[in-house]
Design a protein that fits this description.
The chain has 376 residues and is of the alpha/beta class. Helices cover 27% and strands 20% of the residues. The strands form three sheets. A nine-stranded mixed beta sheet has the order 1-2-9-8-3-4-6-5-7, with helices on both faces. Strands 10-11-12-13 form a four-stranded antiparallel beta sheet, with helices on one face.
């Protein structure tokens, strides 16, 4: 891992580029990054110190990098860095940006104006948020993430099955309950103070990267801070690029990421999406002899029995067609997934014909291992 300040960025990988984010982004080649994760300045507009009821000072965000003269200046800054991020994203790339109520709505407008296509807004619900010390507003217990593809036509990565499995086989929702960064994970300076006021928890980045990248993808963070994105990316076998204008933050991030160990390749395999698998039509099963013409297939309760034909259609008295169309007709529905509706019989038990499709994929060399399935 390195920190570099050179003008050549064509092969930048697993490194921190020290400099102003827009200037450094302009040095990167177009369509070279798979994902951007950005935690930009919030533009909190703080005019004075924030104090607790006992008059002790809250260690909040009052750094110069979070201060802008006006909303217009902030919008111009946002448009510049987001435009560069869109340029360097690959055609099927995507971007995540996180913010609070101070800035996330302005960022959403800019994203849409630049041609990004918003896929979701995700609410990070904090299990341990900072209280509202003045008691004049609700406790601000969440931040919002916007997930957007480079364009409406982009075939962005979404590891749906992996996220569903992570969530006990329930679809992952757009509200994520995670703690703020604290304890040993929170980086401290020599005086024991927070090294960075808005350090994000690695659990948050872990979920973002597992959801929307694959092993080997390149992830860029234009506001790198103390390197949470890089640490999560390295652990998960992703390549990363960080841009950070503060040399002290960059030094802390470098030391942190150097101590991270990449997980073994075998533990990084994600649950493969069936949508991403190569298509094999039902007729191929007949052509390969996996299901022979004249074989019988049934619904899961054996209410209906259909005969397989030589042309890959199936037939019942008075109807013939594809597994999907005939399955829909016998149920009186407009649509049906024939792969899961129809079953073959093996050793007295019914199994979905989708099992046979996996066998066909193996015979065609599309998957490495053959399932131990055969039709009788």
């Amino acid at each position: 891992m390195s920190m570099r300040q050179t003008s050549s960025r064509a092969k930048a990988r697993d490194c921190i580029l020290v400099g102003e984010c827009v200037e450094e982004l302009r040095k990167l080649p177009s369509e070279s990054v798979d994902l951007v994760f950005a935690d930009p300045p919030y533009n909190l507009q703080l005019s004075k110190q924030l104090l607790r009821p006992n008059d002790t000072r809250v260690d909040g965000v009052d750094d110069s990098w979070d201060q802008f003269a006006s909303f217009a200046d902030y919008d111009t800054f946002s448009k510049n860095w987001l435009a560069e991020c869109r340029r360097i994203l690959k055609p099927n790339g995507a971007l995540w940006v996180i913010g609070s109520y101070h800035n996330i709505f302005r960022l959403g407008t800019t994203l849409q104006d630049l041609g990004f296509w918003i896929l979701n807004d995700v609410m990070w619900r904090k299990t341990n948020p900072m209280p509202n010390f003045r008691g004049r507003r609700f406790t601000n217990a969440h931040e919002t993430l916007i997930w957007a593809s480079k364009s409406q036509a982009a075939r962005y990565t979404f590891n749906y099955e992996s996220l569903k499995a992570m969530n006990d086989d329930l679809q992952m929702r757009s509200d994520w309950l995670l703690p703020i960064c604290s304890g040993p994970e929170r980086l401290k300076d020599d005086d024991g103070r927070k090294a960075h006021p808005t350090q994000k928890p690695e659990a948050l980045l872990n979920r973002v990267l597992l959801a929307s990248t694959n092993v080997g993808d390149t992830v860029l963070d234009p506001f790198f801070g103390t390197g949470t994105t890089g640490a999560a990316a390295k652990r998960l076998g992703r390549r990363w690029i960080g841009i950070e204008q503060d040399p002290d933050y960059a030094v802390a991030a470098k030391a942190r990421i150097s101590a991270v160990k990449r997980l073994p390749s075998s533990s990084l395999e994600t649950l493969r999406s069936k949508r991403a698998e190569p298509r094999v039509p039902f007729g191929t099963l007949v052509e390969l002899g996996i299901l022979k013409p004249g074989a019988a297939i049934f619904d899961g309760r054996k209410r209906f029995r259909a005969e397989v034909k030589a042309d890959g259609t199936v037939a019942l008295p008075g109807m013939q067609g594809s597994i999907h169309r005939v399955g829909a007709e016998v149920q009186g529905k407009s649509a049906c997934n024939g792969w899961t509706f129809w079953h073959f019989e093996r050793r007295g038990k019914l199994r979905p014909i989708d099992d046979l499709r996996q066998k066909a994929k193996h015979q065609l060399g599309l998957i490495p291992e053959a399932p131990l399935v055969a039709a009788e």
